[in-house]
Amino acid sequence: MEEKQYIIDELAGKYFSGELTGEERNRLMQWVNSNVDNEAYFEQLRNIWQVSAPAFAPEEVDVERALRKVMRRTEKRRGKGRKIMLWWQRIAAVLFLPVLLGTGYLWNVRNVSADSGTAYQEISSPFGLCSKVELPDGSTVWLNSGSKLRYPVNFSGKSRNLHLSGEAFFSVHSDKEHPFVVNIKEMVVTATGTQFNIEAYANDTVVSVTLLEGALDVNINKLRSVRLSPDQRIVYNNLSEFYSVTETDAAWRCLWKDGILAFRGEPLSEVFKRIGRAFNVNIVMKDGGISRQPYRATFQDESFDEILNLLKLTVPVTYKWKKRIRFDDGTFSRNEVEVLRRE
User: Fold this and answer.
1) Residues 295 and 214 both lie in one domain
2) Cα-based distances in Å from 309 to 67, 86, 256, 273, 290
3) In which element (H, E) is residue 227 found?
4) What is the model's pTM?
5) Are residues 167 and 239 in the same domain?
């Protein structure tokens, strides 16, 4: 990188806050457009900026511990002597954000007041990152890339109600007097104390619930109710209104929360969809036949390019990056990769 890192961090901060001069903007955009690594780093700074005003109490965050963790990991990436500007350190520390890892703790929280007067929080996990959330009742939720969770600031009433869009793993604090209720699309999932995974992205036609331990009641369209036992998975198709319950190894389906991508016979279309979400890349498959081929693998700590190259070694595919579109405000379209059958 030709520009010193702290200068780029300062220019980026002024850019996001609308304080950048025309000359400074040209300097920053020239640096961003010079290579892919610079673009990626700029987008990471944008993610930090967008979530730099959390609604939780700052005194609840161990800032010193978070800062040490952030700096330890960023130093590994940038090398000795390259430090992020203190201003960015403070933001990252409050967020407890491992900036350059595929998974991390990241909040985008806002308070929402319902008509009833109940205060809600909505937490979003940006694409390319995973977030860990501690709920008021002591339950823990891991949000996968591109997911949103909405819940009351304080649980009250006879049940603990939440709304999910995306994928999440729940470790629920046991309270038989107050059931834990997750509302997703056409399903309502009810538990008292258990661990389970839900996948219900807004633009997907299929919704799934996988039970790791305990018991779950799944209600479909308020018409059908299914009770799940450990290592069972229910899959519901919103279009056909058909559902199935199968035996599965629930543990490996939940490995994503630990930064592990595990596949056990899923079609390549599902494999590439999950990989794309994990790395915030839009992956387009150009061959319908190859997209149905089952695939088995486990990826941990590999980069996006390393995963694609490993896939090329085991299935007859190749890929090419699409050129990103630059918008008038200096931002870029999402990274996109085309996957083609290799002849």
Assistant:
1) no
2) 34, 37, 20, 16, 16
3) strand 224-228
4) 0.68
5) yes
